[in-house]
Design a protein that fits this description.
About 50% of the residues lie in helices and about 15% in strands. By secondary structure, it is of the alpha+beta class. The longest helix has 18 residues. It is globular and about 75 Å long. The N and C termini lie far apart (about 60 Å). One of its GO terms (molecular function) is helicase activity.
């Protein structure tokens, strides 16, 4: 059996980003010592009072700060899941459960208060006339929905209600439910969220403990990073937080790397990662185009354009020099300013222009003009 392994959760990175810079350096120094030997007698593990899960401990960073660690009963993977002031770290841990989902085998961290609130609301509401999901319970659970949240999912009637469970459900379960709510088939959804490839690889990890295996699963990989060296640890702890928020699951990554013969329309409901895919695709294109070419990333709102640009600046290196991010009206105005005198078109002129686009799209295998028009409206 290999030596101890260290994994770091996204929640840990969220908490780390909020600490003072001087404290983050202490955490980084501690993490190196911890990775080297989490069983060392110098690591001051402390049990948490009134904590039902005996695997969860705190470890001392200094006199003031504590990290929360998932300390395995079996296996060799230790998971850093939170870091904060002593009392706040204790409170955070008491309000969390850490379970390996029996269907997906992924490690899930649930907020107890949020879960209880969702379940209580579901119990208090009258039974829905028509549930958002016609799938049976086993199918719903197979996508990583925790059993405790099944009543809340069954109570859903609309996509808006589903969106209110974002952040309560594990991300892989939420994404799968969004796809199901959009009418996608069960098998297609399994492919979209990367479950088929994951199921095929499970036999390869049969000799690992449940805790070790759960961290290795694709569905866990979007929430946890395994650390195999000090250099990798430095890279992870030094990475901007935004990079942790743009994880790609296998199908999304395939879409960003694929070669297309023409324009491609990506469809998906809210929360399925379309913007994330677009950002990674922009970086991929910018890394492969000639130096005198540029990539245009457009959005429909100014705020989203600003957010995308901010994330791309942390996601990209030199590629950012070849990416322009503008909301569509800003781009249109920029083009008009360089095109000489302009005037407002009449309805007839607009209709004629769309007819011309339709002819061009048919001859050049582009999107049909109707599709383009619908996207702009």
């Amino acid at each position: 059996m290999s030596g101890p392994q260290l994994a770091i959760s996204n929640e840990f990175m969220e908490a780390l980003a909020k600490l003072p810079k001087s404290q983050r350096k202490k955490v980084q120094e501690f993490a190196k010592k911890f990775r080297a030997d989490p069983k060392s007698s110098a690591i001051n593990y402390e049990k948490i009072h009134n904590m039902a899960d005996d695997r969860v401990r705190t470890v001392r960073i200094d006199q003031k700060y504590r990290a929360v660690v998932l300390h395995p009963d079996t296996g060799n993977t230790y998971v850093l899941v939170w870091v904060d002031n002593h009392d706040e770290a204790m409170d955070w841990a008491r309000n969390r459960t850490f379970e390996v989902h029996p269907e997906t085998q992924s490690l899930q961290i649930l907020n107890v208060e949020q879960v209880q609130r969702a379940v209580d609301q579901a119990k208090a509401a009258p039974p829905p006339v028509k549930s958002l999901f016609a799938n049976d319970d086993d199918t719903i659970l197979s996508f990583g929905v925790p059993a405790v949240l099944l009543p809340a999912v069954r109570q859903l009637r609309t996509k808006v209600q589903l969106s209110e469970l974002e952040g309560v459900l594990p991300i892989e379960a939420y994404e799968a439910l969004v796809w199901l709510a959009e009418g996608e088939s069960v098998e297609d959804v399994r492919q979209y969220v990367g479950m088929l490839a994951e199921q095929e690889s499970k036999l390869a990890s049969a000799e690992l403990s449940q805790e070790d295996t759960s961290i290795a699963e694709n569905q866990s990989a979007r929430r946890f990073s395994r650390v195999d060296s000090d250099d990798e640890l430095d890279r992870i702890l030094s990475a901007p937080l935004e990079q942790w928020r743009v994880f790609l699951h296998p199908l999304q990554k395939q879409m960003t790397q694929q070669s297309f013969s023409g324009p491609t329309l990506v469809l998906g409901g809210a929360g399925t990662g379309k913007t994330i895919v677009a950002m990674h695709r922009a970086r991929k294109l910018a890394s492969s185009i000639q130096s005198d070419m540029r990539v245009l990333f457009t959005t429909f709102t100014k705020n989203l354009a600003e957010n995308v640009k901010s994330v791309l600046e942390t996601l990209c290196g030199d590629e950012m020099e070849r990416i322009d991010v503008q909301h569509v009206h800003e781009h249109a105005m920029s083009w008009l300013r360089t095109s000489g005198p302009t005037q407002v078109a009449t309805d007839e002129e607009i209709a004629l222009a769309w007819d011309q686009v339709a002819v061009a799209s048919a001859s050049e295998h582009l999107f049909h003009a109707t599709v383009l028009f619908q996207q702009i409206q």
